[in-house]
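Proteins fold reproducibly. Consider a sample protein:
=====
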Amino acid sequence: MRVNTEPRDAAALSHAHRRWTVPLRPARGVARGRVVMFPHAGARTAPYRPLADLLPDDLDVLGVLPPGRELRHAEAPRYTPEDAVAGVTRELAASAAEPGAAPPTVFYGHSLGSLLAVLTAHAADRRVAAPAGGGGCAELVLTCGMPGTRGCTRAAGGREPATLAAVFAGHGLPENALSAPELTAERRVLAHDLLVAHRAMAAVDPVRLRRPVTVLSGADDPLVPAVTLPLWAPFTTGPFRGRVVEGGHFFPFAPQGRDLVAAELAAAARRAAAGRPSPAGRSREGRRGVPVARAA
């Protein structure tokens, strides 16, 4: 997927500023790092604030805000993966006082957010030479994300992956959810986000990042089974770490899971600030609590 991430002009950039990215928890004092959180389908940024509050005080925490919710509630919820990647990349690059001057940045994505975080990091890999300069990121932490169409096939036991209509049905949405007038605003947002996820799963297939990637899967996740976790390893030529943990698809929003994700993000931010790579070992099992990792 190729997107135009160059600022069009000063007026356009000003209009886009803080449209796709909003503050979740500003750093207290000088920001020595930055975490950008990409939310799951149907989500607002608010559910990610408790996680942001657990991070070290010297980190600036931003949330990605697609249209149709919170400050963008008046906008139609229609967007594409390309829209999200271009908007987030532009705004992160514009936040630096000068090119390459942004603080070391870690991307965190949950479910749909994992796919958008990977695509945004990939766009930055092509555009930015510095590991975390401008719109780039130094490291990614992902939870409960489907590793592209290969993950869908494995999750389906080798059968054909679910169609978009089947995905809608699994979330209690009608087949015509994208245009159904009777849906609430929240359900319309969910439908359009699921369409974005459907497209993003194909878009990530050819991606090969040059960044450390850590992926956490819930042992009891019915939407993204833990058996798909090892399929994330080929998405980067850098260090890869995978771990199966207690919980289901939304384990990062339970207290124990939230603490675990916060610890991973804080460690990734420390490594990014110090310019150190992610630690990596090797394990083939991926049992509950056992890491699945590959050395750089």
Q: What stands out?
A: Helices lie at 10-16, 49-53, 81-94, 112-127, 148-155, 164-170, 185-203, 255-274. The radius of gyration is 18 Å. Residues 134 and 214 are 22 Å apart (CA to CA). The chain is about 30% helix and 15% strand.
